[in-house]
Protein backbone atom coordinates (compact mmCIF):
# COMPACT_ATOMS: atom_id res chain seq x y z
CA UNK A 1 0.00 0.00 0.00
CA UNK A 2 1.36 3.41 -0.90
CA UNK A 3 0.67 6.86 0.46
CA UNK A 4 0.21 8.70 -2.81
CA UNK A 5 -3.43 9.39 -2.04
CA UNK A 6 -2.94 10.63 1.52
CA UNK A 7 -1.56 14.09 0.93
CA UNK A 8 1.48 13.79 3.23
CA UNK A 9 4.59 11.61 3.31
CA UNK A 10 3.89 8.19 4.80
CA UNK A 11 5.77 7.49 8.05
CA UNK A 12 8.50 4.86 8.14
CA UNK A 13 6.24 2.17 9.58
CA UNK A 14 4.47 -0.96 8.36
CA UNK A 15 1.19 -2.10 9.88
CA UNK A 16 1.18 -5.89 10.33
CA UNK A 17 -2.28 -7.40 10.80
CA UNK A 18 -2.89 -11.00 11.88
CA UNK A 19 -6.14 -12.49 10.57
CA UNK A 20 -8.08 -15.75 10.40
CA UNK A 21 -11.62 -15.72 8.97
CA UNK A 22 -11.91 -11.98 9.58
CA UNK A 23 -14.07 -10.86 6.65
CA UNK A 24 -16.28 -8.90 9.07
CA UNK A 25 -13.32 -6.87 10.37
CA UNK A 26 -10.45 -6.77 7.92
CA UNK A 27 -11.50 -3.79 5.78
CA UNK A 28 -12.10 -1.46 8.72
CA UNK A 29 -8.86 -2.55 10.36
CA UNK A 30 -6.88 -1.81 7.19
CA UNK A 31 -8.69 1.50 6.75
CA UNK A 32 -7.59 2.59 10.23
CA UNK A 33 -3.90 2.22 9.26
CA UNK A 34 -3.99 3.49 5.66
CA UNK A 35 -1.64 6.28 6.77
CA UNK A 36 1.20 3.73 7.20
CA UNK A 37 3.74 3.27 4.43
CA UNK A 38 2.84 -0.42 4.07
CA UNK A 39 0.09 -2.72 5.32
CA UNK A 40 0.78 -6.47 5.47
CA UNK A 41 -1.92 -8.96 6.38
CA UNK A 42 -0.65 -12.33 7.56
CA UNK A 43 -3.54 -14.78 7.45
CA UNK A 44 -3.82 -18.45 8.22
CA UNK A 45 -6.21 -20.89 6.61
CA UNK A 46 -9.11 -18.47 6.20
CA UNK A 47 -12.20 -20.12 4.71
CA UNK A 48 -14.07 -16.86 4.10
CA UNK A 49 -13.14 -13.93 1.83
CA UNK A 50 -10.60 -12.35 4.21
CA UNK A 51 -7.84 -12.56 1.60
CA UNK A 52 -9.93 -11.06 -1.21
CA UNK A 53 -11.17 -8.18 0.93
CA UNK A 54 -7.69 -7.42 2.26
CA UNK A 55 -6.21 -7.23 -1.21
CA UNK A 56 -9.09 -5.04 -2.44
CA UNK A 57 -8.33 -2.70 0.46
CA UNK A 58 -4.75 -2.39 -0.80
CA UNK A 59 -2.88 -4.61 1.65
CA UNK A 60 -0.19 -7.13 0.84
CA UNK A 61 -1.36 -10.59 1.95
CA UNK A 62 0.88 -13.48 2.92
CA UNK A 63 -0.21 -16.96 4.02
CA UNK A 64 2.72 -18.81 5.60
CA UNK A 65 2.15 -22.27 7.13
CA UNK A 66 0.67 -21.69 10.57
CA UNK A 67 2.43 -22.77 13.76
CA UNK A 68 1.85 -19.95 16.25
CA UNK A 69 0.51 -16.41 16.09
CA UNK A 70 3.92 -15.07 17.07
CA UNK A 71 5.61 -17.01 14.27
CA UNK A 72 3.04 -15.74 11.76
CA UNK A 73 3.74 -12.15 12.80
CA UNK A 74 7.49 -12.80 12.59
CA UNK A 75 7.02 -14.02 9.02
CA UNK A 76 5.41 -10.72 8.12
CA UNK A 77 7.98 -8.63 10.00
CA UNK A 78 10.80 -10.28 8.06
CA UNK A 79 9.28 -9.01 4.81
CA UNK A 80 8.73 -5.35 5.69
CA UNK A 81 10.97 -2.64 4.26
CA UNK A 82 10.35 0.02 6.92
CA UNK A 83 12.32 0.60 10.12
CA UNK A 84 9.27 0.33 12.40
CA UNK A 85 6.37 -2.11 12.77
CA UNK A 86 2.92 -1.53 14.24
CA UNK A 87 1.12 -4.80 15.03
CA UNK A 88 -2.66 -5.16 15.11
CA UNK A 89 -5.19 -7.96 15.18
CA UNK A 90 -7.99 -7.78 12.63
CA UNK A 91 -10.55 -6.95 15.34
CA UNK A 92 -8.60 -3.85 16.37
CA UNK A 93 -8.73 -0.27 15.06
CA UNK A 94 -6.02 2.37 15.27
CA UNK A 95 -7.36 5.69 16.57
CA UNK A 96 -6.29 9.02 15.02
CA UNK A 97 -4.58 9.95 18.32
CA UNK A 98 -2.48 6.80 18.21
CA UNK A 99 -1.64 7.34 14.54
CA UNK A 100 -0.32 10.83 15.35
CA UNK A 101 1.86 9.47 18.15
CA UNK A 102 3.26 6.74 15.93
CA UNK A 103 4.17 9.35 13.34
CA UNK A 104 6.10 11.29 16.00
CA UNK A 105 7.97 8.22 17.22
CA UNK A 106 9.06 7.01 13.79
CA UNK A 107 10.03 10.54 12.75
CA UNK A 108 12.78 10.35 15.36
CA UNK A 109 11.08 11.87 18.35
CA UNK A 110 11.05 8.57 20.24
CA UNK A 111 14.23 7.49 22.04
CA UNK A 112 13.30 3.85 22.69
CA UNK A 113 13.00 0.88 20.34
CA UNK A 114 9.64 -0.47 21.53
CA UNK A 115 6.40 1.04 22.83
CA UNK A 116 3.35 -0.30 24.61
CA UNK A 117 -0.11 0.59 23.33
CA UNK A 118 -3.21 0.78 25.49
CA UNK A 119 -6.21 -1.24 24.30
CA UNK A 120 -9.82 -0.26 24.91
CA UNK A 121 -11.67 -3.57 24.95
CA UNK A 122 -15.29 -4.08 23.88
CA UNK A 123 -17.38 -7.16 24.73
CA UNK A 124 -20.77 -7.72 23.08
CA UNK A 125 -20.89 -4.07 22.08
CA UNK A 126 -19.92 -2.51 25.42
CA UNK A 127 -16.56 -1.11 26.49
CA UNK A 128 -15.22 -3.01 29.50
CA UNK A 129 -13.32 -0.73 31.89
CA UNK A 130 -12.63 -3.01 34.85
CA UNK A 131 -11.88 -6.60 35.81
CA UNK A 132 -8.42 -6.50 34.23
CA UNK A 133 -9.87 -5.61 30.83
CA UNK A 134 -9.49 -1.84 31.20
CA UNK A 135 -6.97 0.13 29.19
CA UNK A 136 -4.71 0.68 32.18
CA UNK A 137 -4.34 -3.09 32.57
CA UNK A 138 -4.02 -4.06 28.91
CA UNK A 139 -1.09 -2.43 27.12
CA UNK A 140 1.00 -4.88 25.07
CA UNK A 141 4.07 -3.92 23.06
CA UNK A 142 2.74 -3.15 19.58
CA UNK A 143 5.09 -0.54 18.09
CA UNK A 144 8.73 -1.53 17.74
CA UNK A 145 11.74 -1.53 15.46
CA UNK A 146 11.69 -4.35 12.95
CA UNK A 147 14.74 -6.03 14.53
CA UNK A 148 12.51 -7.28 17.37
CA UNK A 149 10.62 -10.58 17.13
CA UNK A 150 7.85 -12.42 18.94
CA UNK A 151 8.73 -15.34 21.19
CA UNK A 152 7.76 -18.95 20.48
CA UNK A 153 4.85 -19.21 22.95
CA UNK A 154 1.67 -20.63 21.50
CA UNK A 155 -0.49 -18.59 23.88
CA UNK A 156 0.31 -15.26 25.53
CA UNK A 157 2.95 -14.55 22.93
CA UNK A 158 4.90 -11.32 23.34
CA UNK A 159 7.65 -9.29 21.72
CA UNK A 160 11.12 -10.01 23.09
CA UNK A 161 12.55 -6.62 24.01
CA UNK A 162 15.83 -6.03 25.81
CA UNK A 163 15.79 -2.73 27.65
CA UNK A 164 13.09 -0.24 28.50
CA UNK A 165 9.80 0.16 26.65
CA UNK A 166 7.81 3.35 26.25
CA UNK A 167 4.08 3.90 26.67
CA UNK A 168 1.95 5.69 24.08
CA UNK A 169 -1.10 7.66 25.16
CA UNK A 170 -3.29 6.81 22.16
CA UNK A 171 -5.29 3.59 22.09
CA UNK A 172 -6.28 0.68 19.93
CA UNK A 173 -9.99 -0.07 19.91
CA UNK A 174 -10.36 -3.82 20.41
CA UNK A 175 -13.74 -5.19 19.33
CA UNK A 176 -13.30 -8.61 20.85
CA UNK A 177 -16.15 -11.13 20.98
CA UNK A 178 -19.13 -9.61 19.21
CA UNK A 179 -20.92 -12.91 19.93
CA UNK A 180 -20.60 -15.76 22.41
CA UNK A 181 -20.03 -18.11 19.47
CA UNK A 182 -16.74 -16.28 18.89
CA UNK A 183 -15.83 -16.59 22.56
CA UNK A 184 -16.44 -20.32 22.77
CA UNK A 185 -14.59 -21.04 19.52
CA UNK A 186 -11.50 -19.29 20.90
CA UNK A 187 -12.14 -20.77 24.36
CA UNK A 188 -11.82 -24.30 22.94
CA UNK A 189 -8.74 -23.55 20.86
CA UNK A 190 -6.80 -21.60 23.46
CA UNK A 191 -7.51 -23.93 26.38
CA UNK A 192 -6.16 -26.80 24.26
CA UNK A 193 -3.09 -24.81 23.20
CA UNK A 194 -2.44 -23.68 26.78
CA UNK A 195 -2.58 -27.25 28.10
CA UNK A 196 -0.31 -28.53 25.32
CA UNK A 197 2.19 -25.71 25.85
CA UNK A 198 2.38 -26.11 29.63
CA UNK A 199 2.51 -29.90 29.47
CA UNK A 200 5.39 -29.64 27.02
CA UNK A 201 7.23 -27.44 29.52
CA UNK A 202 6.95 -30.10 32.19
CA UNK A 203 3.96 -28.80 34.08
CA UNK A 204 1.40 -31.34 35.34
CA UNK A 205 -2.24 -30.88 36.27
CA UNK A 206 -4.09 -31.82 39.43
CA UNK A 207 -7.76 -32.15 40.33
CA UNK A 208 -7.18 -29.63 43.12
CA UNK A 209 -6.19 -26.95 40.58
CA UNK A 210 -9.35 -27.63 38.56
CA UNK A 211 -11.39 -27.11 41.74
CA UNK A 212 -9.57 -24.11 43.25
CA UNK A 213 -8.38 -21.94 40.38
CA UNK A 214 -11.71 -21.13 38.62
CA UNK A 215 -13.41 -19.55 41.68
CA UNK A 216 -10.15 -17.77 42.49
CA UNK A 217 -10.15 -16.22 38.99
CA UNK A 218 -13.78 -15.15 39.37
CA UNK A 219 -13.09 -13.57 42.79
CA UNK A 220 -10.03 -11.71 41.50
CA UNK A 221 -11.67 -10.47 38.31
CA UNK A 222 -15.15 -9.64 39.59
CA UNK A 223 -14.38 -8.34 43.10
CA UNK A 224 -10.71 -7.44 43.49
CA UNK A 225 -10.39 -5.85 40.03
CA UNK A 226 -13.87 -4.32 40.05
CA UNK A 227 -15.55 -6.30 37.28
CA UNK A 228 -18.88 -5.72 39.04
CA UNK A 229 -18.65 -2.09 37.92
CA UNK A 230 -19.30 -3.21 34.35
CA UNK A 231 -22.74 -4.54 35.27
CA UNK A 232 -24.11 -7.66 33.62
CA UNK A 233 -21.28 -7.65 31.06
CA UNK A 234 -18.73 -7.73 33.88
CA UNK A 235 -20.52 -10.58 35.63
CA UNK A 236 -20.74 -12.71 32.48
CA UNK A 237 -17.09 -12.03 31.63
CA UNK A 238 -15.95 -13.11 35.08
CA UNK A 239 -18.01 -16.31 34.79
CA UNK A 240 -16.59 -17.02 31.35
CA UNK A 241 -13.05 -16.37 32.58
CA UNK A 242 -13.57 -18.84 35.42
CA UNK A 243 -14.88 -21.43 32.95
CA UNK A 244 -11.88 -20.83 30.71
CA UNK A 245 -9.50 -21.43 33.62
CA UNK A 246 -11.36 -24.64 34.48
CA UNK A 247 -11.07 -25.87 30.88
CA UNK A 248 -7.32 -25.14 30.77
CA UNK A 249 -6.51 -26.93 34.00
CA UNK A 250 -8.89 -29.82 33.29
CA UNK A 251 -7.16 -30.38 29.96
CA UNK A 252 -3.76 -30.23 31.63
CA UNK A 253 -4.97 -32.75 34.23
CA UNK A 254 -6.28 -35.00 31.45
CA UNK A 255 -2.91 -34.90 29.68
CA UNK A 256 -1.17 -35.76 32.92
CA UNK A 257 -3.27 -38.81 33.81
CA UNK A 258 -3.24 -40.04 30.23
CA UNK A 259 0.54 -39.88 30.17
CA UNK A 260 0.71 -41.69 33.50
CA UNK A 261 -1.65 -44.43 32.26
CA UNK A 262 0.37 -44.92 29.08
CA UNK A 263 3.69 -45.41 30.85
CA UNK A 264 4.96 -48.99 31.00
CA UNK A 265 4.25 -50.49 34.41
CA UNK A 266 7.24 -51.69 36.41
CA UNK A 267 7.36 -55.44 36.92
Structure description:
- With 267 residues, the chain is of the alpha/beta class.
- The protein has two domains: 13-116 and 140-165, Alpha-Beta Complex (Spore Coat Polysaccharide Biosynthesis Protein SpsA, Chain A); 180-262, no CATH class.
- It is 40% helix and 21% strand.
- Strands 1, 2, 3, 4, 5, 6, 7, 8 and 11 form a nine-stranded mixed β-sheet that branches. A two-stranded antiparallel sheet has the order 9-10.
- The longest helix is centred in the last third of the chain and has 32 residues, at 231-262.
- Mean pLDDT is 91; it is low at 1-5.
Please outline the helices and strands.
Blueprint: E1 13-19, H1 26-32, E2 38-43, H2 50-56, E3 60-62, H3 69-77, E4 84-89, E5 92-94, H4 96-109, E6 114-123, E7 126-127, E8 141-145, E9 149-150, E10 159-160, E11 166-176, H5 180-200, H6 207-224, H7 231-262
Parallel strand pairs: 1-2, 1-4, 2-3, 6-11
Antiparallel strand pairs: 4-8, 5-11, 6-7, 6-8, 9-10
Summed up, what is this model?
The protein is 40% helix and 21% strand.
Can you give keywords for this protein?
267 residues, alpha/beta, Spore Coat Polysaccharide Biosynthesis Protein SpsA, Chain A, 2 domains, nine-stranded mixed beta sheet, two-stranded antiparallel ribbon, 7 helices, 40% helix, globular, disordered N terminus
Number of helices: 7
Helix % is 40-55%
Percentage of residues in strands? 15-25%
How many strands?
11
What is the third-level CATH name, the topology of the largest domain?
Spore Coat Polysaccharide Biosynthesis Protein SpsA, Chain A
Alpha-beta content class: alpha/beta
Mean pLDDT across the residues is 91
Work out the count of structural domains.
2
Return the string of H and E elements.
EHEHEHEEHEEEEEEHHH
Overall, the morphology is: globular
Amino acid sequence: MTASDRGSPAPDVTAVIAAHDESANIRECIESVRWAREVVVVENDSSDDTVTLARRAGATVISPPFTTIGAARNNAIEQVSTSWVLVLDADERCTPELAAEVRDVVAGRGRLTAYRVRRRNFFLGREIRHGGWGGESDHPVRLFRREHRYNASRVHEHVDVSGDTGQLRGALLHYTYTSLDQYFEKFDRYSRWWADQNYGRGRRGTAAAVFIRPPARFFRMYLLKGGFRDGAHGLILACLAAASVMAKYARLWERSIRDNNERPKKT
